[in-house]
Amino acid sequence: MKASASNAALKKVGPYGGDGGEIRDMDPSGITRIVKIGIRHGGAIDALIVHFERNGHEESTDLWGTDGGELTEISFEEDEYIMAVKGHVGTYNNYTILTSLMLETNLRSYGPYGAEEGQSFELSAEGGEITGFHGRSGQFLDAIGVYAKAFVKLGPLGGSGGDVRDMDPSDISRIVKIGIRHGGAIDGIVVHYERNGHAESTDRWGSEGGELTEISFEANEYIIDVGGHVGTYNDYTILKSLRLQTNLRTYGPYGAEEGQYSFEFSVQGGQIIGFHGRSGQFVDAIGVYVKGGRAETKVVRTSGIGVCYGMIGNNLPSPSDVVKLYQSKGISAMRIYFPDRDILNALRGTNIDLIIDAQEVGLLANGSAAADWLHNNIIPYDGVSFKYIAVGNEVMDGNAYNVLPAMSKMYDAIWSAGLQDKIKVSTAVRFDVLTNTYPPSNAVFSAPHMGPIVEFLRNTGAPLLANIYPYFSHAGNPGAVGLNYALFREPKPLFNDGPNNQLQYQNVFDAMVDSMYYALEKAGGPNVGIVVSESGWPTAGGFNTTIENARTYIQNLINHVRNGTPKRPGKLETYIFAMFNENQKTGDAVEQHFGLFYPDQTPVYSINFN
């Protein structure tokens, strides 16, 4: 989602530090983003290593320095870029070296690492981005400098059709006028601008279809925000709508506000000075060049990807910060496992869809407890987008027979409150409510309490919430469920199923979900839907629990569920488990290691939610 600006604006800054060691440098040409930085530090900066993407391939520098001190690895998010490098230069055994280092991005600061002793320095991109490093190193990191670009390139977002379109942002003083052709989508765009006192314009990106709207900007007016929607037309992904916001007013939206996701490119303290993208018959994709300030990309999908909060920890961010993190990542849905006043207040007005659990099924099955629960935990929180109430989570003991009465009581309370068109009542089940799951068409519910629950869901139009974990299937029987099969990496289908064997299964996730669909059919619920209310992969604590396996599973899961399963194609609403590692969770060690983010809100691994 974020890439660097053109090499024409590249500037070499520094280095700061001593002249010991050997010269270190990385060729910045073709670098699209810095992915990760490793810093070794103690009383000084022992070493630095930089991982980056160049022309679509990941590369890294050698280790500049030695492997002394403590290692800190910083993984940057897709839309994160370095704005400044700060630190101190001091002496060690009469050698001048870097004693501390700190990185500042458009999203947060990292460090300081080392000892803040000696002369301070700052290497700034001056409103652009840092895309590379140079310096000197021997036993320590003796000196550091940066390669900076005057512009930040955000996007493009949209489809891959048409041809690449770009405008060199160098020396552009202002955008004068924009012409947008639009109907049910964005047919075309032309940008008029001033460069070095001369009027220039792009060619028309797209075609002459639709209505033409021309926007002429005032002399003191500049663009600070570009938003819109991306959707499909004749199976092509294109720009469906476009909106511009300046320091003075908002223009649009133009086109149709519908599609797979909405997006927003914005800048605080700077301005959008140029555009790039793709176009053919329509404008397929769009991105922007930003000069100055802090730039940000936001994407909100309409395909149903959510993330479970994960709250059993004593070191987690405040609920308001967590909600902001959801918003910044374009995560449009959340699950929480018990009502929490601070979380619910933070969710007001955010349009983040919510699954909220009501766990005490034994209590809720009797008297007015369900109505009381609703009036305490739902009614007071206007502005919260409650979507499902999960009455019980994975209830399999003797309490299982209380689940349906509790669901019925909750449903009656929702009707009495007039919320029946807004909130659905369901329950969350784990995969072992099934038996005979190979092939999926053989699956049936083994738990006898499930039959009446399926009837309730069919009659009320609610989906079944299913917690689906290919990890546990793999860890429990790696011979039958191989790692590639669990991680969506099998190159071809492993088996066929269904009428006439037309359904092909290439991953265990599809097989598990379709087993649920077949069991629902046999229990009298052929039209009952499924929401995957949990799915994840741990990064530590068990068999094949690595950061790379977790990243692979989650990214492939996000990419996969937009298309559904072999038995039920289409978008499959899915919730990833979980937002944070939970350091106070009991049980097996893996239970504490499902988090996507550390408590300081930095990613455990890089994921593109969009």
TrEMBL record:
<dbReference type="InterPro" id="IPR044965">
    <property type="entry name" value="Glyco_hydro_17_plant"/>
</dbReference>
<dbReference type="GO" id="GO:0042973">
    <property type="term" value="F:glucan endo-1,3-beta-D-glucosidase activity"/>
</dbReference>
<dbReference type="Pfam" id="PF00332">
    <property type="entry name" value="Glyco_hydro_17"/>
</dbReference>
<dbReference type="InterPro" id="IPR000490">
    <property type="entry name" value="Glyco_hydro_17"/>
</dbReference>
<protein>
    <recommendedName>
        <fullName>Jacalin-type lectin domain-containing protein</fullName>
    </recommendedName>
</protein>
<dbReference type="Pfam" id="PF01419">
    <property type="entry name" value="Jacalin"/>
</dbReference>
<feature type="domain" description="Jacalin-type lectin">
    <location>
        <begin position="10"/>
        <end position="150"/>
    </location>
</feature>
<keyword id="KW-0326">Glycosidase</keyword>
<dbReference type="InterPro" id="IPR017853">
    <property type="entry name" value="GH"/>
</dbReference>
<dbReference type="GO" id="GO:0005975">
    <property type="term" value="P:carbohydrate metabolic process"/>
</dbReference>
<feature type="domain" description="Jacalin-type lectin">
    <location>
        <begin position="151"/>
        <end position="292"/>
    </location>
</feature>
<keyword id="KW-0378">Hydrolase</keyword>
<dbReference type="InterPro" id="IPR036404">
    <property type="entry name" value="Jacalin-like_lectin_dom_sf"/>
</dbReference>
<keyword id="KW-0430">Lectin</keyword>
<dbReference type="GO" id="GO:0030246">
    <property type="term" value="F:carbohydrate binding"/>
</dbReference>
<comment type="similarity">
    <text>Belongs to the glycosyl hydrolase 17 family.</text>
</comment>
<dbReference type="InterPro" id="IPR001229">
    <property type="entry name" value="Jacalin-like_lectin_dom"/>
</dbReference>
<dbReference type="InterPro" id="IPR033734">
    <property type="entry name" value="Jacalin-like_lectin_dom_plant"/>
</dbReference>
